[in-house]
Amino acid sequence: MSKVSVIEVKTPAELKQFVKFPMDLYKDNPYYVPSFIKDELKIWNAKENPALSYSEAKQYLAYKDNKIAGRIAVIINYKEEKELGIKKVRFGWIDFIDDEEVSKALIQKAIHYAKEKKVDKIEGPMGFTNLDKAGMLTMGFDKLATMIGIYNHEYYPKHLEDLGLTKEKEWVEFEMNFPKVLPEKVEKFSGLIAQKYKLKVLHFKSKEEILPFVEPMFKLLDETYKHLSTYTPISDEQIKTYKEKYFPLIDKNYVICVVDENQQLVSFAITMPSYSKALQKSKGKLFPFGWWHFLQASKKNDRANFYLIGIHPEYQRRGVTAIIFKEIFVRFTSMGINFAETNPELEENKNVQLLWQDYNPINHKRRRTYSLNINN
User: Fold this and answer.
1) Do the Cβ atoms of 171 and 349 come closer than 8 Å?
2) 5-14 burial, b if ≥16 CB within 10 A, otherwise e?
3) Cα–chain-centroid distance for residue 141?
4) Of the candidates 355, 129, 344, which has an alpha carbon nearest to the alpha carbon of residue 235?
5) Exposure of 369 by Cβ count < 10 A (0-12 exposed, 13-18 middle, 19+ buried)?
6) Which residues pair with 235 in a beta bridge?
7) DSSP character for 80?
């Protein structure tokens, strides 16, 4: 049996190999959706990723038979440790061939790193923060991945479980066949709620009109999810980074903002046309031809993805979602959207899952993080 070796990524060339490895691993898989190579490289650049100002990270490549056979990144988020008292090594960007010696070598590297840092626990797959991709797919291997979800082979979870890692957190995702007729109670309550609380939906004439609401959206996300056990506030630097990364992909018709009589944001929803097939065709590159596939996806698409939704706690039990969903229905219908898919939602976050209850949601994907207490 060939020996597995694991090296730390040190050079730009090795980092590019680290980023491109899953594209080789999944080159014949019809459900895998690649990330932009350029964006993945930026993640490991302190000038581009503000999370590196309060985190430390290393990347590793596993080799077998003189070929790259796996990869893993290890991260310590010191902001999480300071603000939440959570001390752990996060591991992510984990991919490997179906070889237990390879997966074992990668996890052992995470364990060794944790011991070096005097940390007792490892958990993953996850990124630096709450807004990064997280969770290993455990159901839905035959479903097309989304731009913000991790895709992995079916053998991944078994490898981690065989190595003694156990479930830490669980996420669920839903798919909806969008209705041809708006549910009666949504139609009825949307008008009543808007009138009662003096709320209105904003209609943007251009993307530039959305810009003043970007920061309030992220602040509202903090208010919406701060009750979750692992949530850490979004920094101003993160807001700037995410705005630069995702704003170019935003379509004004897919952004819905609800404001009160003082023009204060009380709720919002950001959806996007599904860019999964466009990403597959672009093979991780926007140029020279990737932009064309994205342009086509934005114009001709029957599928949309929910990315972010925020509702101020004061309005979460006042029916404001009826206003949002009526507006989504009107816009999706006019654009020919027949299917919608949610982003990953923590299994414990029942409030968000209740948002979809009137649309016959089907739980089509599940994912989880795995953890290991290295003292046991």
Assistant:
1) no
2) ebeebeeeeb
3) 17
4) 129
5) buried
6) none
7) H
d(CA 374, CA 376): 5
Q: CA-based Rg of the chain, rounded to a whole angstrom?
A: 21
- Tokens matching residue 40: 């993945």
Cα atoms in the 13 Å half-sphere on the side-chain side of 216: 16
Contact assessment for residue 331 and residue 312, using Cβ atoms and an 8 Å cutoff: no
Q: Are 266 and 321 in contact (CB under 8 A)?
A: no
Strands 303-311 vs 339-341: parallel, antiparallel or unpaired: parallel
pTM metric for this prediction? 0.90
Residue 183 one-letter amino acid: P
Q: DSSP strand E in the chain: where?
A: 5-8, 55-64, 67-77, 89-96, 121-124, 136-139, 166-177, 200-201, 255-259, 265-273, 303-311, 339-341, 345-346, 362-373
Across 117-165, the runs of DSSP E, i.e. the strands, are 121-124, 136-139
Instruction: Say how far apart CA 43 and CA 37 lie, in whole Å.
Output: 10
Q: How many Å separate Cα 159 from the centre of its chain?
A: 23
pLDDT digits (tens, 9 = 90+) for 280-339: 999 888 877 788 888 888 888 899 998 888 888 888 878 888 898 889 888 998 889 999
Look at residue 70 and tell me whether its pLDDT is greater than 60: yes
Could you give the CA distance from residue 50 to residue 238 in angstroms, rounded to a whole number? 6
Q: Which amino acid is at 231?
A: Y
Residue 320 near residue 266, CB atoms below 8 Å: yes
